[in-house]
Amino acid sequence: MTATLSEVLRDHKVVVVCGTGGVGKTTVSASLALGAALQGRRALVMTIDPARRLADSLGVSG
Known about the structure:
Mean pLDDT: 87
Helix content: 40-55%
Shape: globular
Strand content: under 5%
């Protein structure tokens, strides 16, 4: 059985996004966090990348 993305966000506490460079991890991570927040879940998005791409995609400054 394949779960829908909505079910994954609803049923799991941690979702890890990984892959090689340039495959869209930042975009997917930001979208997953937004989707979870829209479901009323608390969302934390964390990266070890020193670039500010994730903060930029989430509209976070400073």
